[in-house]
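In this section we turn from sequence analysis to structure. A common task in structural bioinformatics is to predict how a protein folds when a small molecule is present, because the ligand can shape the pocket around it. The inputs are simple: the amino acid sequence and a SMILES string for the ligand, here pyridoxal-5'-phosphate. Study the lines below before reading on.
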Amino acid sequence: MAALAAARTSVLDRVAAAAVRARRDPATVALLAVSKTVPPERLRAAVAAGLTLLGENRVQELAQKAPLVPGATWHLVGHLQGNKARRAVELCTAVHSVDSVGLAARLDRLVGEGMGPVPGPLSVYLEVNVDDDPAKSGFRPRSLAEALPAIAVLPRLRLEGLMTIGRLGDSAEPARATFVALRRLSDRLRTVQPRLGAGLSMGMSDDFEVAVEEGATIVRVGRALFGERPSR
Ligand SMILES: *Cc1c(COP(=O)(O)O)cnc(C)c1O
């Protein structure tokens, strides 16, 4: 637990420094600890160390771990297939990877059936494939503008904002353009669709400081907290 507490402090310090550089209040940036491949024993220690907001990218792994890690709140960050949506709604308080109108409508319907861990709307982020990268899922910026009206009318979703995955590179800088583009897209879309929140889910271990400088409100950090993952 001491090692996880130290890792948490180090990441939070880096988040705070990046926020200050951008003249932002560090308290406006949440830390989501992405815990894929990390076993439940270690996640209990993470919760004890203050990392209570955990993110998984696969519903099946989340479902296996959640009962073994009391005190955690779970977000889903990975691509969600329609047939796993029910389980996701049962376990998560937020889904960062909503990438189609159909998935949004399905989540809305499931929340209406009272499936969620907490009453009330489900928090969602709309995933945007800002760079048009064929390897990534998410809305293309233009198709999001077209899809947004149909999503904004879904009453049981809280549209927290937008999510993206930065461009991979040798440094964090290649991701900066992606993060700036997501922020500008959010600014643009919110002038026409006030139900879209100002949240920006962006930044991972290699680029979270740049993401905070460019406006991230929640960073999704795995390896910088838990260490390198075993290759699957
Ligand atoms: C794994 C993952 C992360 C965390 O990645 P790290 O590089 O370990 O910080 C963030 N977001 C998504 C969608 C992920 O799948």
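Residues 2-225 form a domain with the TIM Barrel fold (CATH 3.20.20.10). As an exercise, try to locate the residues that line the pyridoxal-5'-phosphate site and compare them with your own expectations.
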